[in-house]
Amino acid sequence: MRQVRQNKIMLIGETFSGKSSLIRALSEDVYTPRRAMAVEYFGRFVNTPGEFLENRRFYHALITSAADCDTLFFVQDTTRISCLFPPLFASMFNRKIIGILSKIDKEKSNSTLATRFLENAGVKEIIATSAITGDGLDRLQLLISNTAVISQQ
Ligand SMILES: Nc1nc2c(ncn2[C@@H]2O[C@H](COP(=O)(O)OP(=O)(O)OP(=O)(O)O)[C@@H](O)[C@H]2O)c(=O)[nH]1
Ligand SMILES: [Mg+2]
What we know:
Helices cover 25% and strands 24% of the residues. With 153 residues, it is an alpha/beta fold. The chain has a single domain (2-152), classed as P-loop containing nucleotide triphosphate hydrolases (Rossmann fold). It has a six-stranded mixed beta sheet with strand order 3-4-2-5-6-7, with helices on both faces.
């Protein structure tokens, strides 16, 4: 039997990087984020707490949660001058990874630096976004709809 299901996406990024705002901006349903120290499921999205990236003893939790996802978003806040993604972090996951530059509408946004951070983490495909102005969201929406999973059983 041929099965088509919606492509599942997991978001990873430090606290306050804009993960929940991105889910809200990409969703038709109303998403009310909670500040919980747990993985959160909303439709096709799997949101992870910032703490999971900030503390390497939670890496195993990220790897486990990624197992049933198709695509991972690495969210990097472009107003930050530091990065919590370790070098080649992307290679820990055998998944399609999309780097998300968040908050590009902000005055202090530095997309060049944030791109370098994500490239350093091993990310190849990077999209600049703003959850406020909607910049980049159409491209992102297209990219995730193009990767719908078709499995043959
Ligand atoms: N200007 C601007 N602000 C943004 C954007 N995205 C998120 N923010 C703001 O940044 C703050 C953090 O955004 P969240 O979406 O809650 O970030 P998060 O990654 O879910 O944070 P945690 O759940 O705490 O890990 C909020 O005050 C948002 O309003 C953006 O694209 N532009
Ligand atoms: Mg959140």
